[in-house]
Amino acid sequence: MNWTVIAENLPLYAEGAKLTLFLAFASLAISFMLAVPLAFLRNSRVTAVRYTVLFYTLVFRGTPLLVQLFLVYFGLAQFELIRTSILWPWLSSPMVCVLLTFVLNTTAYTTEIFAGGLRHIPVGEIEAARAYGMSRRTQALRILIPAMLTRSLPLYGNEMIMMLHATSLASTVTLLETTGVARMITLTDYIQFEPYVTAAAIYLALTFVLVSGFQVVQRRWAGYLENRIG
Amino acid sequence: MKATLKTLFATAIMAAALTAAQAAEQIDIATDATFPPFEYIDSEGKLVGYDIELMEAICEAAALDCNIFNAAWDGMIPGLIDGKYDALISQLTVTEKRRQVIAFSDIYDRPIFRFVAKKGAAFDFTPEGLAGKTIAVQTGTPMDAYVTSHFPTASIKRYDTGSAPYLELTAGRADLHISYQAQIIHGFLKNDAGKDFELVGPQLTGADAEEFGEGVAIAINKKNAELVEKVNKGLAAIRENGKLDAINAKYFGE
């Protein structure tokens, strides 16, 4: 065992953990904003709209995240048209490519989770809202969105954990997050167990914080659903 | 019927024991096949290249039963230390740092290292001149160590494979890449993808910077002195009988 190497590289791990957190929270925050309206469109009465959203979620849930990342980062760069376009300054940055891919991917899953939550709201709640004479906008803001989110919480919590762990793929396109730091140490100091077990401990700690936070949220906003279970 | 079953069972056990004994003698040799023309996977999915032919010739000369296969670069040296592999042939340069953890055969080549960039781009190869320039390298290679210590103000991008830096160069994300001169010429510049690029800067060797090491050799587990000796004998034999010259001529002869 060679823990001195790990001790020497702790500042690098701290930087890596910061980047992991940034990537996870930035993609989750942006995807949340996108997934809420998309969940409504996914349940739209207009067939074309419903299927367009379904097509998007199917494509991004039906292909591996690593393949999506390589397509965006290496694949797009192959086209002269893209390299000379005004988008290139952004698309040439690994950070932009990673965030774009992560957002597109996790939004697809989150949209389906929220859309499922929306479909499972008891008819009675919606009828009550109508009976109060609420406008469609008020219905959505006061009844549908809160009910959809609280019902989706357990599944959405899983998606957040998956997203946190998926950030490890960013290291394949030069971003030095937690896994990237571990891999760099294996390549420069020829040890494997110590760097990866340190990375695993960091992910476990971050997941623990995430899960604890989630329990607070669950109790605060979804507590009213609890007596229905069991 | 019972007797036949018994015989069958006994034969099966004997066969298994035999294969196990044979497998124990087989030498497992890993290579990172992302480095044409030294080691790469051809269009038929076969492992080919200079190092592969060299290793096969050595194994033949030393009467070793070798199994050469492709493995990921990031696990290669740790895998050799842990005994997962018996040897590595992957244009590995002999450095003091590596000597502490693994053994090497005799050196079989002394490579020249070189930068590659877009045609017409001019660079000043001093720490100030390369400040802010993006240099793509394969992580954990002597080239990585060299640019890290000599050009601290450059932006160094590190990749797991030997081929990804070329993708970045052609995409315009990297200004420079540094590798083995022969690999740049034969693995990149001679291809269609490399037609707009050229070698730049000075020819570098182990004499210019210690990071480039003493030369390239076959890496062998430190505990296996016997294999080091056998490989060295094989290497001497193919040097003697002209096989090494033939391989050199095949790959790098003009």
Automatic annotation (TrEMBL), chain A:
Compartments (UniProt record): Cell inner membrane; Cell membrane
InterPro entries, sorted: AA_ABC_transptr_permease_3TM (IPR010065), ArtM/GltK/GlnP/TcyL/YhdX-like (IPR043429), MetI-like (IPR000515), MetI-like_sf (IPR035906)
Keyword Cell cycle carried by entry: no
UniProt main location, coarse: membrane
Bilayer-spanning residue ranges: 20-41, 53-74, 86-104, 155-176, 196-217
Keyword Protease applies: no
Membrane association type: Multi-pass membrane protein
Signal peptide start-end: none
All residue ranges annotated as the ABC transmembrane type-1 domain in the record: 17-215
The entry's keywords: Cell inner membrane, Cell membrane, Membrane, Transmembrane, Transmembrane helix, Transport
Listed Pfam families: BPD_transp_1
UniProt record similarity statement: Belongs to the binding-protein-dependent transport system permease family. HisMQ subfamily.
PANTHER family listed in its UniProt record: ARGININE ABC TRANSPORTER PERMEASE PROTEIN ARTM, MEMBRANE COMPONENT OF AMINO ACID ABC TRANSPORTER
The protein's name in its UniProt record: ABC transporter permease
Species name: Shinella yambaruensis
TrEMBL record, chain B:
Signal peptide: 1-23
Keywords from the UniProt entry: Signal
Pfam families: SBP_bac_3 (PF00497)
Stored SMART domains: PBPb
PROSITE patterns per UniProt: SBP_BACTERIAL_3
Keyword Kinase (UniProt): no
All residue ranges annotated as the Solute-binding protein family 3/N-terminal domain in the record: 26-254
Location of the protein in the cell: Periplasm
Predominant localisation class: periplasm
Source taxon at top rank: Bacteria
Statement: the UniProt record of this protein carries the keyword ATP-binding: no
PANTHER family in UniProt: ARGININE-BINDING EXTRACELLULAR PROTEIN ARTP, MEMBRANE-BOUND LYTIC MUREIN TRANSGLYCOSYLASE F
Similarity annotation: Belongs to the bacterial solute-binding protein 3 family.
Protein name: ABC transporter substrate-binding protein
Organism, scientific name: Shinella yambaruensis
